[in-house]
Amino acid sequence: MELNIPQIGGSPALSGFNLLTARQAVHDRLGIQKARLNQAKALYEDLIGSLDQVVSLLGSFSSRAHRLTVVNPAPSSVAVALGSAAAAGSHSLEILQAAAPHILSSQAYAADGTDFAGQTGSFTIALGDGSQAEIDYAIAAGATNDEALGQVADAIRAAGLDVTAARLRVGGDVRLVLTGPGGGTDGIIASVADGEGSLMSALGLAGSSSPGSFSPATVGEPHEAQFVLDGIALTSPTNLLENVLPGVTLTLLGPTEGPVRLEIIPDEESSLESLDQFVAGFNDLVDLIASATQAGGDLTERGALRDSQNAARFVHMMRSALRPVLGGDGAGPELSDLGLEIDPSGHLLVKDRGALAEALRAGLLEENGSEAPAGALGRLMQAVLPFSGPLGILSGEQSNLTTRAKALDEYIRRSEERMIAREKALLEQLAAIQEIGIRLQSQIQQLQLLGAFQQS
Description:
43% helix; flat
């Protein structure tokens, strides 16, 4: 806020304007303080983002799933996904048949017809595992068959039963199709029966099914997946096989032409790319910290976080974590074991990419078979985790700065209001003084005229 302060030599209002000038100087200093608070808030936001990226990259780099890949000679028959518990190895797989669900289809009706318009009632669907649901329906008056079967499919889905209901329109005809949850006895749609009304009977879906004896509405009989894994004959009601191999998810898509061999091997290329990303992210964080905490001087600006104890603590813990553990048998790989080193500025340098490949083959990146990184990288992860995330120390610092900035904003706002009110009062006083001065000047002139008249 800029103040318009007139020059009033010898005016009684001068002291008031001097006070206002002093208050303006205080206000300006508060503005500078606010700017530094906002700068510190922005730096913390950048630090939090950079640190979260480093934590994510470090976790990805040390992730066993990220360090392995699959050689799959039959991608059209099986899909393979690796989890954190996956281990390198070779496995034989022969898929004899994929699982198939129980499928029922209604009779076909003209899509634009109104055979079911305005009907209300209920029906029950039961599955082979004993679960069932009673479904109420109320078809809108004037609804076409296409709209009516869509409303019935919605009612079935809303019932929460593990059955897929779909309206299937082909050309001018429409059908209602029900699909069970999977192959095997439990996945059979065991019964479809009308309660009130006769909608299911009219559609041709009413009936019962059991293994080997299926209702006339059946267009797809259920069967389990059959496969041979590492010489062991197995079956599954679904095609999604989780943890049949530790940490490996197999999705069976169709039969294979005899046994195929799945090779789970170290992915050195991906790991080296991940290492490069981690190193780049870490060095960006180091540069950001250096800028935020620099001492300042004649040629440099003082970092906004120079006096932050938590920022200094963060730097100390990060540097300490990367120092080698002296005589630390069993402490895990140090940076040199991974082909890395720290330069004098605190940056990570990749010195030997072959050393990382050797560490991968030797399984040095994980701690006691767990997903956590080992050695220097593990210490780094443990050091920075308390500072990262929405509940971390850096986020807490940023939140405190936000609170202080809001309080300072309110103080500045009130200060501005007081100065504006004070300026207004002083200007009113000045106007009154000037009016008095004008009247006094007029009286002096009149007296002077009167004196001149008397002398003459």
